[in-house]
């Protein structure tokens, strides 16, 4: 039974890989289940065994992309060689680089973003809550080490999240160069950490 579950997850993972590539090349609107099935070397009927429809596949792609972003942040938090202020800067810079790589060369992916924003906002809310929780970890560590002086880490994490939205949301990735966004992200995080310190 466990082997069957692992095989199903592997197939689903492959479907999401192929669908994400097709969404990036042709857009969400023009992509059909039959095309995704063909990319996966399976019949459309077989594809429906794993995903109910194209919207479910799109939601899966979005969730996986968001989870990859969160894992980047978790790796930063686990890095004991970084001070809390450096972790905050790395949070902005690493997520920015990841998002720019994903979206700047594939503007058609914005159709996927639009779909999620319009019909699956619950996915975005869930991601934002997890991201905010990780930011509170950085702030709490800063308080414990004496580097930060933050009285309300939850509220402050929410404000930091809002101030960094340009560097972590896909909407801006094809509108600005990576160099321009990196320069701004460094400036904003420097300003934020200066305000957080004692």
Number of helices: 10
- End-to-end separation in angstroms reads 55 Å
- Strand content bin: under 5%
Instruction: Please identify, by name, the CATH architecture.
Output: Orthogonal Bundle
Can you give the mean pLDDT?
93
Shape: elongated
CATH topology heading: Tetracycline Repressor, domain 2
CATH class: Mainly Alpha
SSE order: HHHHHHHHHH
Summarize this structure as a short list of keywords or feature phrases.
198 residues, mainly alpha
Give an overview in words.
The protein has about 200 residues and is mainly α. It has one domain (about 60-195): Tetracycline Repressor, domain 2 (Orthogonal Bundle). Helices cover about 75% and strands about 0% of the residues. The protein is built from 10 helices and no strands. It has helices at about 1-25, 35-40, 45, 55-80, 85-105, 110-120, 120-145, 155-165, 165-170, 180-195. It is elongated. It starts with a helix and ends with a helix.
Summary of the model, kept short:
By secondary structure, the chain is mostly helical. The chain has helices at residues 2-26, 33-39, 44-47, 54-78, 84-103, 110-119, 121-145, 153-163, 165-168, 178-196.
